[in-house]
Design brief:
heterodimer; A: 321 residues; alpha+beta; Enolase-like, domain 1; 5-stranded antiparallel beta sheet; 11 helices; B: Aldehyde Oxidoreductase, domain 3; Aldehyde Oxidoreductase, domain 4; 3 domains; 7-stranded mixed beta sheet; 6-stranded mixed beta sheet; 20 helices; Diverse_Substr_Oxidored (chain A)
Amino acid sequence: MITKNFAYHAPADLHGVVTALSAASGTAVVLGGGTMLVPDMTHGKTVADVVVDLSRAGLSGITLDGGGGPHDGPVADDGVSDGRVADGRVADGRVADGRVADGGVVVVGATTTYAHVLSDPRSRTLAPLLRRVAGGVTGGPQIRNKGTIGGSACYANPSSEVPAALVALGARLRLASAGGTREVAAGDFFTGAFATARRPGEVLAAIALPAPTGPCPGYTKLKLNESSWPIATAACVPGPDGALRVALGAVAATPLLVTLDPPEAGVADPAWRAHVREVVDAALAEPWSDVLADGDYRRRVAPVVAVRAVADALQQAEGES
Amino acid sequence: MTVTTSGKAGVRAIGSPVRKADGPALLTGRGRFLDDYSLPGTRHAVVVRSELAHARIVDVDVRAAAASPGVVLVLTGEEAAAHAGPIPHFIEPAARGGRHADVRCLATGKVVYAGEPVAAVVAGTRREAEAAAALVRVEYERLPHVLDADAALEQDAPRLYEEWPDNVILHNHYGTGDVDAALAGADLVVSDTIRISRTTTAPIEPRGYLASWDDLDGTLTVYGSLQNPHQLRWMLATSLGLDETAIRVITARVGGSFGLKMQGHPEETLVCLLSKLTGAPVKWIEDRRECFMAGAREQVHRFTIGAMRDGRIVAVRDRIVANTGAVSAQAGWAMPNMSATTLASGYTVPNVRAELHVVVTNKPPLNAARGFGKDSAHFVMERMVDLVARGLGADPAEVRRKNFIPPDRFPYRTATGLNIDSGDYPGLLDKALRVLDYDALRLRQAELRAAGRHLGIGLAFELTPESADGPGSFVSGFDVTTVRMTMTGGVTVYTGVTSPGGGNDTGIAQIVSDELGVPLSWITVVQGDTERCPSGFGNFSGRSMVVGGGSAALAARDVRAKLAVVGARMLDVPVDEVKVADGRLRATGDGRSVPVPEVAAAVLTRAFAIANDVEPVLEATRAYKPGNIDHVPDERGRIQPYPTYSNCLHAAVVEVDPETGVTKLVDFVMAHDCGVIINPALVEGQAHGAIVMGLGAALSERLTYDADGRLTSDRFKTYLMPRAGDLPTIRLEHQVTPSPFTMYGNKGAGEAGVGGAQAAVANAVEDALAPFGVTVREVPLSPPAVLALIDEARTR
């Protein structure tokens, strides 16, 4: 039970959100879907003076921002925006023949739920990896209807799968505050276990993804059973040069990005598997350890999920050609 | 709790899969659970618990808490001890040759586990009580603690109870025969160790109590989510120093229990005391993290088994160390007893020797849990049988068949003294293997193995002694039911057994329907109220249909006999020429009939006319005592506390991923024999639940603690129960071997599955990984544990 009184705001737009955050005295927390924050407050792990609820701020939805422009759109790194994305939405873009023009940016509003990702047909073409991630979220309709992609990113639980998926996709996180909006690359956003580059007074407004140009990324998730948090995840995005960009999740405090050689002799090739083990092991300085699985186990299975994600990516690519 | 059941006319109710009487209420959210009860002026209690596993309490500072908004009372252990005595044990260890320790509702002097209640706060709302509880400051002097049972047996181990010479609450030997000689003469001798991790029962509804003390007439009314209202009344009378007759216990609908809600918990006495001290109704609802403290099992077995070349098992020796945690007044400490006495299960092993140490440690107490120790016996026995098969290069199915008690040798007295009533174990094996298509499956396994995939098949037999009776205790082998018919033919059944959610109320209504000859829809079953129901013993040990059903049948027959006398007069035929069915009393000769309500009205309103010389009471209270219980020790000192022995054979098919250690359940078959089935839907529901509980223990469930003894698996994301997606369709096959010792030939049902499923999965995983040569030595077989097994086999 939450034993301490707190001020509650549910602003009607992003401007109201950042205003409420900047005006907050004491500890302010941002409420997305609440699947983590509410239990943490109930258990006294998080004690807040101010709760700013995003549910009425209109930050939900998947849209395509134009195309042809730079991926990070009009917002400069760590800079202040021209205001175009301040509401977290941009004009819907073109989706022709199930394909997206190169260079477009897919904008996933911060409060887009897993259920939204699954029910919105545009996610098939605009955010196929997030769709796969959302489809594998257990906990029933309650969690899928309330839990958000943005919330999972901001909670930065090493054991959840959204952070690594965003890193794999080269996502940029749009952080709004009273001072303006800045973008942070996913690779820089996750700074530690349950820690991000989001500053006090900032709210995640949206996640910008480069519009997909190739086949669906490969994906693998390992859990101990259906109840379990992910123990190791891998998302594989084949690059245009044939190199394989693999983001490993849940194996370390923050997502781990490695680049693998393509398996010329197939994924069963022992030499290539040894290469994967070597690369992953070298990158995995300090494996994550928790009640469910220790670091040794995670180190052991990290290359296994990497191999499986690559195999999955190659299979997806084959399906497309 | 009061329920009414509906059913079809003209159909014999016993044996029908009648739907649960409370199904509609549950499905539409109208089931009334403990937290739904509210009395005017109810206050809310929160328990302050020890943060340390072992410490002397130096000081409890309640000033800040007492000054917190809404707080009515903050109670410390010292103050509680001035008003309430020790809680009497459900099963007194000293009466079983063990050691006694006083357990109070709040700790005094020292705490012996992290989570032990040290203080309580009562406030106007739960929120105020929680806020105040956080302000109670307890100063401790830390003492060395011990969490592992083997370590607790060491000479210099920290001592939980200073008056004891060691940390052993019970040490005993079981079994007969010359094990050493038999092992010396055996062709194959296998010794190994098995560790069974601590799990919990995790019912969907945690515990909860609402107590209301009436200061004017000095009476106490307690609503609770519990299993044993009459025993609790006695227990509260003892701990609170009240007359039993001043206490009324009312059992709310129970949202699952699995033994957890058998009485003996400190909060039972505590909540009543808080009501008495505040003069207001006080409610306490356990939160999920508190509920996770309750341990269900934790044992280490060091065993040796000997067999002859032909597969005959000649001897079993087992040294069991059970970690019962701190002492509780609940029955949990006694479970390992049954782990020893249930050896060697349903096999004709002439020489069995089990040595048991039940050890206290600074973990939270074990609480009674489905399986009640029998589960661990089967897990270990079935692992032993598989190791014999492996050692002999024999088929595990055939080694079991070779050693089963033959169907013509019942009743069969085992080496530990159990007198098994009846059974056809080879029949179960045949059924299970047929459903599995065993030979084809073995071929498929070989094909997959050649392709680098690891399919495994595991078998396990399980024997479930049920409906226990413990002489001189409240573990009673009989129960009592009242059947009462109103003037209009309505029937209310008041029974001493309770339903923890399994639906025995529906089964009892079915029995009364058949025995009384009235439709199910006329029958209401009342359970769990000490003021309304006859003195009985509630729910445990698969007893409810055996003794609740048996006593209901006897009482219904008495009422029917009276209806028959008066009804026969109304039809003007001899009394032996009428029968009662479907709510009518019928002449067997010409078929003329009269409605039962008219007969009932005649008994009760024409007592000086047609019902003259008939005692005008349409009500009977009867007790039912099944046969086969024998407390006179035999020449070897063995007693026989169980009337019935349900049995079943499990077959698990798994596929193991040797790269990740993940085990996927591919198929699960259970051939089950609980004698005559009163309601197959209820039996199957119980079996599914018990199997899944066993599958969880086998693969994923484990309570974990940090080095300081604090629980780290206190939510469903850290204590991993199976979900639907983890489970195959469970295929159940029934076999009916009637018990000669019960009313209908029925045997207890509801516990079978916990041990057998664990064993079948463990055997299947070992079988799947046979190419690596692994030996399973512990559960749960979580993916990291499975990889460790493969590593161990590789480096050997």
